[in-house]
Amino acid sequence: MGQKIGPGRKELMNKNQPKDMDKKRRLFEAAARLFAEKGFEKTTVDEIAEAAEVAKGTVYYHFKGKEELFLFLVEEGMAILMRRIAATLKNGMDCRVSLKKLIQVQLEFFAEYWDVCRIVLAEAWGTSTRQEKLQELLNEYYAIVGRIMEQGIRERVIRPQDKEVLCTALFGMTVLVALHFLQKSGPVDWARIEEQLETLFFRGVVIDTGNGKLL
Question: In the CATH hierarchy, which top-level class contains the domain 69-205?
Answer without folding.
Answer: mainly alpha
